[in-house]
Specification:
The protein is flat, with a radius of gyration of 17 Å. By secondary structure, the chain is mainly α. Helix 1 packs across helix 2 and helix 3 runs antiparallel to helix 5. The longest helix is centred in the C-terminal third of the chain and has 25 residues. 0% of the residues are buried. It contains five helices and no strands.
């Protein structure tokens, strides 16, 4: 595992992936570091597991990719709403 991590980080692509992950982590900590986001992640994972075959029959997409996409959209909505509320003085 350590060897795999070191070889990825030595490449330019690996550094880019780590940098993007770090930036996403900063945004996540700023906007979504609460119990609501954790519950949303757990519920969406449970739904994908329980209804996996049904979802795959309708949407021919990798379920892990679908989970990531759903979470990215959710974080985007949370960021927008939080910025909107901060601009108007609700926080």
């Amino acid at each position: 595992m350590f060897f795999f991590f070191v070889t990825i980080c030595n490449d330019e692509e690996g550094r880019l992936i780590v940098w993007i992950g770090y930036q996403v982590g900063k945004i996540y900590r700023k906007y979504c570091w609460d119990i609501i986001c954790i519950m949303m992640a757990i519920m969406s994972t449970a739904i994908a597991i329980y209804f996996g075959k049904w979802i795959k029959s309708i949407i021919p997409m990798n379920l892990i990719l679908l989970l990531i996409l759903v979470h990215v959209v959710y974080i985007g909505i949370r960021c927008y709403v939080k910025d909107w509320r901060e601009e108007r003085g609700y926080y």
